[in-house]
Amino acid sequence: MKIPMLDLTAQYASLKEEMNARIVQCIERGHFILGEEVRELEARLASLSNVSHGIGVGSGSDALYIALAACGLKEGDEVITTPFTFFATAGAIARTGATPVFADIDPVSFNIDPDAVAKAITAKTKAILPVHLYGQTADMGRLRDLADAHKLWLIEDAAQSIGASFAGERTGQLSDAACYSFFPSKNLGAYGDGGMIVTKHDELAETMRILRVHGSKPKYYHQMLGINSRLDELQAAILNVKATFLEEWSESRRQVATIYNELFQEVSVPVETPYIGEQHVSIFHQYTIRTTSRDALQNALSEKGIATMVYYPVPMHLQPVFASLGYKEGDFPEAERACKEALSLPMYPELTKEDQTKVVAAISHFFKEALVK
């Protein structure tokens, strides 16, 4: 049997006719840079996030960088973020010249711990950059309070949480800006790279739009040092087709997660299933379990044709490129433990209960065999 982490071919099959027509229409229109498809998507995702502005850019990584740069982050400034994340989070901070300062995670949600953030704030701190891992937001209420109390920017790395909410408010509403990624494996994924920033601040949005086109306004007149990072018109056309199904797909993912939870309740295995807080609505970008037997379990599932992924094997503070920051093993024990225990299982809207049953049965079989040995 073969059970993939994600099946984009199944998704395309359901959208093929509409998708192909939209792509051809875009090509025949002959406008490929920042055209009507990008403007439509920007308006659509700003509305989804309940904010005023969407700014389409070349990738989720660029979205983070441009958002931070628009806030004026520079050398000598500090930005607090999580060590348990994809490299782009900390990399974007470093690209501005600012210093990433790490704060440990809550072991239950995998997201940054507000208490750890509070302890990390110094006179040099200029922003807090939480990551909403696996589809569930961080505790945005407490983080917003911290940002307000210390007059800090609050920027969300929402690459994995488009459409998620905290206390009834969507990603983007409780922050100064939220950054989305359209990498193909994301819940709203392009057929290549792409990203977007959403914000409620008019002036910030204008600065971001200038930064994405080399810092120019009008064209050929450069007010600031920007970069070339524009969401491709063809990718925007693809995303406009997909975006109409996003809420439906999010609900399907929650149903898949519920089935996983029920299946795990029927077996006795030493794994922790995802915890979703009472104030949170997750979009389940991933269904991530944790177990002290992670590596052996992953190998056993691979042998049975079941794909899994480790997000992430090495925390940011132990990455060689950040050695100069002076962190060492043991500084962030919860993030380090998560890197050894977290395992993401197959998760996508079209995943069948039959395949989920096979996944959980294989996990149960692994632990039964381990007991015998």
Describe this structure in words.
By secondary structure, the chain is α/β, with parallel strands linked by helices. It folds into two domains: 8-243, Aspartate Aminotransferase, domain 2, CATH 3.40.640.10; 246-372, Alpha-Beta Complex (Aspartate Aminotransferase, domain 1), CATH 3.90.1150. It has twelve helices and twelve strands. It has helices at residues 8-29, 36-48, 60-70, 87-95, 114-120, 140-150, 202-211, 233-243, 246-265, 294-303, 333-341, 353-372; strands spanning 53-57, 78-81, 99-102, 125-129, 153-157, 165-166, 169-170, 177-181, 195-199, 280-281, 287-290, 342-345. The strands form three sheets. It has a seven-stranded mixed sheet, sandwiched between helices. It has a three-stranded antiparallel sheet with strand order 7-6-10, with no helix packed on it. Strands 11-12 form a two-stranded antiparallel sheet. Strand 6 and strand 7 (169-170) form a beta hairpin. Helix 1 (8-29) crosses helix 8 and helix 3 (60-70) packs parallel to helix 4 (87-95). The model has no long low-confidence stretch (mean pLDDT 97).
Strand-helix topology:
Layout: H1 8-29, H2 36-48, E1 53-57, H3 60-70, E2 78-81, H4 87-95, E3 99-102, H5 114-120, E4 125-129, H6 140-150, E5 153-157, E6 165-166, E7 169-170, E8 177-181, E9 195-199, H7 202-211, H8 233-243, H9 246-265, E10 280-281, E11 287-290, H10 294-303, H11 333-341, E12 342-345, H12 353-372
Parallel strand pairs: 2-3, 2-4, 4-5, 5-8
Antiparallel strand pairs: 1-9, 6-7, 6-10, 8-9, 11-12
Helix pairs in contact: 1-8, 2-8, 3-4, 3-7, 9-12
